Write the structure tokens for this entry.
Amino acid sequence: MTNNDAILTHNLRKFYPRVRGYRDLIFHPWRKEFITALQEINIRVQRGTCFFLVGPNGAGKTTLVKILTTLVRPDGGKAFILGYDLFQHEKRIRKLVSLAIAEERSFYWRLTAKQNLEFFAALYGYSRREARRRISEVLELVGLASVAEMRFNTFSAGMKQLLGLARAMLSDAEIIFVDEPTKSLDPQSANKIRQFLRHELVKRQGKTVFWASHNLDEVETYADEVAIINQGKIMVQGPIEKLLAEGRRSLFHLYVQYVDRDEEEFSRSRIGE
Amino acid sequence: MSNLRIFWLFFKRDLWEALSYKLNFLFSVGSIIFSSTTFYFLSRLISGENQALAKYGGNYFSFVIIGVAFSGLLNIFQEGLPGIIRNAQLMGTMEALLITPTNIGTILMGSSLYPLLYSIVQSLFQIGVAIVIFGMKLGQVNWLGGFNLLALTMIIYLSIGILSASFILVYKLGNPFSWAFGSLSALFGGVFFPVEILPGWLKWLSNLLPITYSLRGLRKALLLSLPLSSLWPELKALIIFALFLLPVSIVVFRAALRKAKKDGTLIHY
């Protein structure tokens, strides 16, 4: 691990217990079955870059994001966030990373945008004065300052996503994780968010953005580095220019090549006992 | 920054939310007045000499109001914490809370503040209504004894709440602790009638419930004006419950949190 590494993982693994039916529970109560969510994940993300994790639905993107943000515990391997071991320094890491949750229900709907942020600012350890300053800053940055006193339940989908970003920026974390931040947004709102992540956070503020997505156009335009994940495995990783050259015509060709190739082999090993 | 500010913000968050439901407060006040009225007329029916009731001053209305007011308060601990976890799972706020550097213990404590204070106000209001409207009489209140009993009982019920919250973290629904303590306490804990009227083996069961000691002690302190020394048997029993339940609940909660993080089900519902 070098000083320039924001994230480094080595053979990171995750298995989820398989949900079992009543019949199975009665006849085989002690049997444990697992589904492989991630296998041998090795990635390296450099500081101050926009890193894209691309893959189809169910590929393991969200699991990896949740592991790296300490919400899910891995079953094996190693991971370091800005040099801190994920297994040993969970609390420290939570001060260094933030996650923009696309889930709009993650806010208190009957509170205003400002009241929501005031509450979360306290959990990030801000004093009242610091919180006010920081909330004004982030609301200004995402363009929601004029609607700060409006209740969250009156916001449009785009505004809710932006408020999610504002909350992720409250802590001034060095690494910001975003999981499909433009999902279900109109093109104009989606573009606003993409520009913000790339130009404001990465280019201007020098943050590291770890962006999980399955929108390849988004990746081609905004990525510094890309990893393609399929069925829990990193298929390929590298700078976008290199991957585009390898894909010859577009990232789409490379993506299809890697995603299709491994599917049959993987599905055979996916469920183990 | 101290946890005090975090607790204050939790309280404010819940207050803001509660105030946004304007009718709810009025209905709460109404339901307290209705339940007090019901118990008042019921107490007129249950009149005359009753040996079991005589131990608590002989007035059923005072007896039941103390039981209902304080069991409601204790329910907040027992139901409140698992309710908070369940609510955060359903609302989707769990992930947003757990990604912050604030530890889950502080989050749980902070989340219980508003329900607790609201419940204290409700209990006091219930007793106030009983005194002002229905002429309930308290004795020379032993404040120190009452406070000690209440504090110990809160620790015990907080522990039960933590055990229930652990269950909800892992299994989401179907909480056996809440069921066991909630139903058994209402029936055998001396909330609505003195446990002395129960047959022998059920009386034995009531002795296993902390609420039996809490309510007996509180009635002694509030209705019979007994000194601290007379409350010692109840205090002793509650101390034993607290010393056992609190560490057990913390260990169980940590294990549940580890399991939920390992299974990746922390935010599932």
Remarks:
- The mean pLDDT of chain B is 84.
- The longest helix of chain B spans residues 60-91.
- The CA atoms of residues 147 and 156 of chain B lie 14 Å apart.
- The interface with chain A takes residues 1, 5-6, 8-10, 12-13, 16-17, 20-21, 91-93, 95-103, 107, 258, 261-264, 266-267 of chain B (CB under 8 Å).
